[in-house]
Amino acid sequence: MVAILTRRLEFPPATKANRDGLVAVGGDLSIERLLLAYQSGIFPWPIAEDMPMTWFSPDPRAILELDELHVPRSLAKVIRRGTYTVTIDRAFARVIQACGAPTPERPGTWITPELEDAYVALHQAGHAHSFETWRGDELVGGLYGVATQGLFAGESMFSRADDASKVALVHLVEHLRSRGYALLDIQQGTRHMVSLGAKLIPRREYLSRLAAALQQPVTFS
Questions:
Q1: What are phi and psi of 55, to 5 degrees?
Q2: Which of 105, 133, 159, 214 is the most buried (most CB within 10 A)?
Q3: Would residue 148 count as lying in a domain?
Q4: If DSSP codes are grouped into helix, strand and coil, which group holds residue 38?
Q5: Are 60 and 198 contacting, i.e. CB atoms less than 8 angstroms apart?
């Protein structure tokens, strides 16, 4: 049975999710609740903008092993050429806005204005981070996610130029490896991410690895 959240800061166990991965409905998007969600193996994913917030923990769960990122030769060539430059936390608000912008392939978006504001607040508190890909002074790609202990939960990415989001992902993985992170969660295994090395694991395995990652005393920067 799906839980109905109140003002009390708590979530049911992720293992209580229904067959679609839905764990709970309602609650706010405070910094404290968002962090608790990620630390519990749960993330917000609204079904509709005019409905209460919905919280999910899918089974299986998609992750990207930090030592299994597949970098195609063409992408490696782009990186070697220095076609783009990549920065960290230089334009978080612009990245999340771009991730939520409609495209011909994706006319709708799950990044509601409420979620956008919540993640900007999370960023300002030091828990959410962005990687930006630039071509000169033009922002052409990027991604953002949430960092807590040894977990980085990737949320979304966008690209306005060939390989721009992939370049940001390569830099993210390199950064997480250098900082000693243990787990890169990407929630769902899209065809695009699977081509880069993502894989699906059972939720029980994900929760076990999450618990271990949360014991890692690492920092993002």
A1: -125, 135
A2: 133
A3: yes
A4: helix
A5: no
Structural domain contains residue 165: yes
Shared-domain flag, residues 132 and 165: yes
Domain span holding position 10: 3-59
- Per-residue pLDDT tens digits of the chain, which is 221 residues long: 899 999 999 999 999 999 999 999 999 999 999 999 999 999 999 988 788 999 999 999 999 999 999 999 999 999 999 999 999 999 999 999 999 998 766 666 789 999 999 999 999 999 999 999 999 999 999 999 999 999 999 999 999 999 999 999 999 999 999 999 999 999 988 888 999 999 999 999 999 999 999 999 999 99
Closest CA to 179 of 142, 126, 211, 217: 217
Looking at the 3D structure of the chain, how many domains does it have?
2
Burial 41-69 (b: 16+ CB within 10 A, else e): bbbbbbeeeeeebbbbbbbbbbbbebeeb
Phi, psi of 62 (to 5 degrees): -95, 135
Answer whether 37's CB lies under 8 Å from 55's CB.
Answer: yes
Dist. CA 27–CA 79, nearest whole Å: 42
Write the burial class of residue 74 (CB in 10 Å: 0-12 exposed, 13-18 middle, 19+ buried). exposed
